[in-house]
Specification:
It is a single chain. This protein is mainly α. Helix content is about 90%, strand content about 0%. It is elongated. The model has no long low-confidence stretch (mean pLDDT about 90). This is YtpI family protein. It comes from Paenibacillus dokdonensis. Pfam families: YtpI (PF14007). Keywords: Membrane, Transmembrane, Transmembrane helix.
Length: about 100
């Protein structure tokens, strides 16, 4: 059962990495600042998911070490902050885009 969870976490990590790279490239190539902000916000959300998945994978691999627990906690906090900031920025840029069009 633990190996199934590990493979699922690895798959979600790979999907989050691919989506973050895709939206990051879209953000950099966009001419409109509002679209760039929207794509950047979605990139933040996927980066947060990626960090949380990485922390969960580390929880299954390294068990009991104090340093590992501190690093996992840092990854979890950074991931949660990225998701929060991405959702907040996505709402801001989507309202900005809908008001100006």
């Amino acid at each position: 059962m633990v190996s199934v969870i590990r493979y699922l976490l690895y798959a979600l990590l790979v999907i989050a990495c691919i989506c973050a790279a895709l939206y990051s490239s879209r953000s950099r190539r966009s001419k409109d600042a509002r679209e760039r902000g929207l794509y950047g916000a979605v990139t933040n959300i996927f980066m947060g998911i990626m960090l949380i998945m990485l922390a969960l994978i580390f929880m299954f691999i390294f068990q009991g070490s104090t340093v590992a627990i501190i690093i996992e906690a840092i990854f979890l906090v950074l991931g949660a902050f990225n998701i929060f900031a991405g959702i907040r920025n996505r709402g801001y840029y989507s309202r900005m885009k809908s008001n100006n069009m």
